Amino acid sequence: MGTAKGVLQVFSGVAPRNHCFDPSSNALGSAYSFNSHLISTKRSASKKIKIPVYASIQLRNSETFGVQGFGESSYKDRSINRSKFSSCRCQRADSVSGTTTGSWFVDSADDLNPLNTMVNGPHVLDFDDVKQLKEEKTDSMSNGAPGASSTIHRAKVDPIEEEAWDLLRDSVVYYCGSPIGTIAANDPTSSNVLNYDQVFIRDFIPAGIAFLLKGEYDIVRNFILHTLQLQSWEKTMDCHSPGQGLMPASFKVRTVPLDGDDSATEEVLDPDFGEAAIGRVAPVDSGLWWIILLRAYGKISGDLSVQERIDVQTGIKMILKLCLADGFDMFPTLLVTDGSCMIDRRMGIHGHPLEIQALFYSALMSAREMLAPEDGSADLIRALNNRLVALSFHIREYYWIDLRKLNEIYRYKTEEYSYDAVNKFNIYPDQIPPWLVEWIPNRGGYLIGNLQPAHMDFRFFSLGNFWSIVSGLATVDQSHAILDLIEAKWADLVADMPFKISYPALEGQEWQIITGSDPKNTPWSYHNAGSWPTLLWQLTVACIKMNRADIAVKAVEIVERRLSRDRWPEYYDTKRSRFIGKQARLFQTWSIAGYLVAKLLLADPGAAKILITDEDPELVNAFSCMIGANPRRKRGRKNTKQSYIV
Ligand code: GLC
After folding, report:
1. Ligand 1 centroid to 570 CA: how many Å?
2. Which strands sit side by side in the sheet containing 400-402, from one edge to the other?
3. What pTM was computed for the model?
4. How many CA atoms lie within 13 A of 59 on its CB side?
5. Of 177, 518, 125, which is closest to residue 346 (Cα–Cα)?
């Protein structure tokens, strides 16, 4: 149960800083209750204000829903209350010389922080006190992780890194005085903010990892627990609600007037599940990234109490249940609409895009480690294991392309009606694009972007390939071959700025038909083969895993030539990534964080293990059983005991 400890008055630079709920709670019931919160009042613009402390706050639009069981599974009786808004009351924000005066509440989530011992109870500090405390707090948040000491950092800090840290800290969003995320971009030159002032789940991942590697765990812990609060409540689009378990694409801290009290406001966390997003895209990747970050948090901080919480366990299960639910699909890959991941616009990646499959695999592997073994989860864990095996078999077999495989496809027979068809998906050899015939190197290969009946999307998608290495979805040989290809195709994939989001660009009629003539996704721009500096961190993790960090080092050197000078753009355009993207934001947080993560990991490669998953021998065994299985023979057998169920 949340017990508020004090209220501090501060100037708010990025977002209103007011507080509400207590993420430190450990019981399911209390995890979603908002009792004992602070309310501050302010009647003048004075900097020093006496702030009374209240207890108890009403939930707005609270609702109850149960978690439905998976198959025969029995975790359906878990019923949890979630609020439509995570909210707290606070005073109305006043604008003072362009900055916003807000209230900084300190809650029991900060119990471990020495700062709190000074503000315990209805204690009031003035602005200068707070500023000083904030500085101390930043230092004290370094929890002593290996290689994470801020003192060490200061001793040999490089100016670009120092600038990046300053910018990253400036992007932090506070909710009730606690850091809970980072805004997508902090671009003073942009007049049209759109939703770049929100905390995007996917964008926060590199920022969260940077903070974890620096030993600053609180922001990540708060992010995990607050976003869990937002998971799948009844947001609707045209009378339809997203599936339970869906995590939002982004959220915003809003300060809204308090009902019935003109002089007070409350803060709410307002999530967007895609119902306001351009194109109304579903953020399938959010929940998967959330699970991956949760594991990383536990691994580096050693604090397993977060993943062990009942509400967090329930959150994991809800995401899994949504992903593992039966549908009409014939494949073990996740079926999604276009724009359901980092590429969140129409780019012809509907179906079974590699990026989602790699994140799905990684989230399943991570969840497998974190799920508490209990009777109610047995069915879910069995389903998860089966899916892991089937998914890795499917991707490794059917998404893989290299010179040899391409030659095989070139000679494919088509229209094979049989259980043991070689060309299972009826791929017509004429689909092999002319660019690929020239482009495929003698040495190396990659996982294609998508596979559907009679359709292979042969484009190279970076994130999907990097994360297939990191998660172990690709075999060891395939992982090395992907890195070989990256080296061989450096001029195309990296050129003047790492890393092309996809390769090659859709052009001409293909661009018209597939993107709907999207003026933002013109050839060699943005999602259509633009270059995204944020991808540097995933590349680095993949290289470290394969003991080939030299590739990442080379990429970092290129980044350092331009990224800071160009003011940390979101993306670059042109074939050789020579221009700052046409509509790219400057000071894009994940460009900054991606660089920092790459630097931190190269300085301490061992820390990459918080993101890496290695193949479990049980899964390897199950996988080889599948490879050896003849579908026809298996079908004829009476006793079709599936040896791959682990
Ligand atoms: C763009 C990107 C998306 C990102 C968002 C915020 O829409 O495509 O991946 O999350 O900007 O930075």
Report:
1. 9
2. 400-402, 445-452, 455-461, 502-503
3. 0.78
4. 16
5. 518
Query: Do 15 and 101 contact (CB within 8 A), yes or no?
Result: no
Q: What is the mean pLDDT of each run of 10 residues along the chain (646 residues)?
A: 30 31 37 28 27 26 32 32 47 30 30 30 32 40 40 66 98 96 91 87 98 98 96 68 86 89 88 80 92 98 97 95 90 94 94 98 97 88 95 97 97 92 93 97 98 96 98 97 98 98 98 96 98 98 98 98 98 98 97 98 98 85 67 44 39
Reduced to 3 states, what is the DSSP secondary structure of residue 58?
A: coil
Expressed in angstroms and rounded, the spacing between residue 342 Cα and the centre of ligand 1 is 6
Give the integer Cα–Cα distance in Å for 234 and 240. 9
Position 610, amino acid: I
Position in ligand 1 atom list of the atom nearest CA 200: 10
Provide the edge-to-edge strand list for the sheet that holds 6-12: 94-96, 99-106, 6-12, 124-125
How many angstroms is it from 123 CA to the middle of ligand 1?
41
Q: Determine whether the shortest distance from the Cβ of 202 to ligand 1 is under 6 A.
A: yes
Out of 202, 284, 534, give the residue to mutate to test ligand 1, the one with the largest number of ligand atoms within 8 Å of its CB.
202
Which residue, by CA, sits nearest to atom 9 of ligand 1?
342
Tokens (6 digits) for 138: 């930043």
pLDDT value, residue 543: 98
The token pair that represents 274 in the structure block: 């895609």
CA dist., res. 598 & res. 560, Å (int): 12
Chain centroid to Cα 389, Å, comes to 23
Going through 57-98 in order, the beta strands assigned E by DSSP cover: 63-66, 79-82, 86-91, 94-96
- The span from the CA of 40 to the CA of 266, in Å, is 10
DSSP element (H, E) containing 152: helix 150-155
**495-522 confidence digits (pLDDT tens):** 999 999 999 999 999 999 999 999 999 9
Distance between alpha carbon 180 and the CA centroid of its chain, in Å?
Answer: 14
**Centroid of ligand 1 to alpha carbon of 200 (angstroms):** 8
Task: Please tell me the chain's helix, strand, coil percentages from 3-state DSSP, rounded to the nearest 5.
Answer: 40, 15, 45
Tokens of 83: 């609020």
CA dist., res. 453 & res. 426, Å (int): 7
Q: What is the phi-psi region of residue 245: left when phi exceeds 0, alpha when psi lies from -120 to 50, beta otherwise? A: left
Instruction: Give the whole-angstrom CA distance, residue 283 versus residue 337.
Output: 10
Note if the bond before 146 is cis, omega within 30 degrees: no
